[in-house]
């Protein structure tokens, strides 16, 4: 059974009457939300009488027989047990896959198992071991908080501690300010929100209070940079490039990410010119997630000539970041990267 994170509370309310599933798989890259989901499951399990807890982590050399043993062995005191299995790599391998299938095939009424995984790729989601777990229990997908939804998420978290921003434009600016400062670092966002709860009483928060309290703890992802470029969000694009530069990110990696996205746009544009449907192109080019909407929009606003010119600029930048001479480019490669990204964003 597959479940979105926002459906967890409803599921647990129903479980009070009919009991918890024998196992839960929580998967996603937002560590804060994964931890919170497992905390909530653990709380529900304890309320249901599962008092003992055993934690396993599949590090190098892990003995997968311990997983089956943990599920099938009784507690020394006859207590019902929680078994938590963490698979940081998301790849259990052959032995792990067999162990997980065995666990799924023989659930125990006295054991509830929580398995945590990073975000699943297509192949993992279709693997025999994951399909077996999904069929035997509940899999909970933890989606990342999209940048456009981050201000609202911050507002919801403030409400949980009886705080809110002031109404109107000042409040909107306050939420946007927090989102800008914590982008890409949800755990830090959580900590900053908690800090506001410690510094100020329940009730409205002014922009000045938020500004004085919140640090710049954003963590920028080079692959999210492409999303900012595709969406035409120039302020965010500039901020992310400055952040990546400040964090010491390699220019060659940033250039590669931008160039690959421009190549995809060029292929989409060529496909559209040849009469192909956009849905066919997105499948052929494996354009998924937020990019499934952003890439077609960007391809529609850019001509093939513009994209070819951008690829020519990228080729010059490639020479420059390798220490070779590149005519017509800014002396500083980061300025050239910004120039390249802006040709697509505008």
From TrEMBL:
It catalyses: DNA(n) + a 2'-deoxyribonucleoside 5'-triphosphate = DNA(n+1) + diphosphate. Pfam families: DNA_pol3_delta (PF06144), DNA_pol3_delta_C (PF21694). GO terms for molecular function: DNA binding; DNA-directed DNA polymerase activity. It is an enzyme of class 2 (transferase). Keywords: DNA replication, DNA-directed DNA polymerase, Nucleotidyltransferase, Transferase. Gene3D superfamilies: 1.10.8.60, 1.20.272.10, P-loop containing nucleotide triphosphate hydrolases. Its EC number is 2.7.7.7. One of its GO terms (biological process) is DNA-templated DNA replication. Residues 24-136 form the DNA polymerase III delta N-terminal domain. The keyword Transferase applies. CDD domains: HLD_clamp_pol_III_delta (cd18138). GO terms for cellular component: DNA polymerase III complex. Residues 221-323 form the DNA polymerase III delta subunit-like C-terminal domain. Belongs to the DNA polymerase HolA subunit family. NCBIfam families: holA. This is DNA polymerase III subunit delta.
């Amino acid at each position: 059974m597959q479940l979105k994170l926002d459906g967890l509370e409803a599921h647990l309310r129903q479980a009070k009457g009919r009991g918890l599933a024998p196992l839960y798989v929580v998967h996603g890259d937002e560590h804060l939300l994964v931890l919170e989901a497992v905390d909530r499951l653990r709380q529900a399990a304890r309320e249901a009488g599962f008092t003992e807890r055993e934690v396993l982590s599949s590090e190098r050399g892990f003995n997968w027989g311990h997983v089956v043993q943990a599920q099938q062995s009784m507690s020394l005191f006859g207590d019902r047990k929680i078994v938590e299995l963490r698979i940081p790599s998301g790849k259990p391998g052959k032995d792990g896959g067999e162990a997980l299938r065995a666990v799924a095939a023989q659930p125990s009424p006295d054991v509830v198992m929580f398995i945590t995984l990073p975000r699943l790729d297509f192949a993992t989601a279709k693997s025999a071991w994951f399909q077996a777990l999904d069929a035997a229990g509940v899999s909970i997908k933890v989606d990342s908080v999209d940048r456009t939804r981050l201000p609202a998420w911050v507002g919801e978290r403030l409400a949980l501690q009886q705080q809110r921003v002031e109404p109107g434009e000042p409040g909107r600016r306050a939420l946007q300010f927090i989102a800008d400062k914590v982008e890409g670092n949800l755990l830090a966002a959580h900590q900053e929100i908690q800090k506001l709860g410690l510094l100020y009483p329940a009730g409205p928060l002014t922009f000045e209070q938020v500004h004085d309290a919140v640090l710049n703890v954003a963590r920028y992802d080079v692959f999210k940079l492409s999303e900012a470029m595709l969406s035409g969000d120039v302020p965010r694009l500039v901020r992310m490039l400055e952040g990546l530069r400040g964090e010491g990110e390699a220019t060659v990696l940033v250039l590669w990410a931008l160039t690959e996205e421009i190549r995809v746009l060029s292929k989409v544009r060529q496909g559209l010119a040849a009469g192909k449907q956009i849905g066919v192109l997105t499948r052929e080019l494996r354009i998924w997630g937020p990019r499934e909407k952003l890439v077609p929009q960007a391809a529609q606003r850019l001509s093939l000539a513009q994209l070819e010119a951008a690829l020519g600029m990228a080729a010059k930048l490639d020479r420059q970041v390798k220490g070779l001479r590149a005519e017509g480019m800014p002396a500083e490669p980061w300025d050239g990267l910004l120039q390249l990204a802006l040709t697509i964003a505008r």
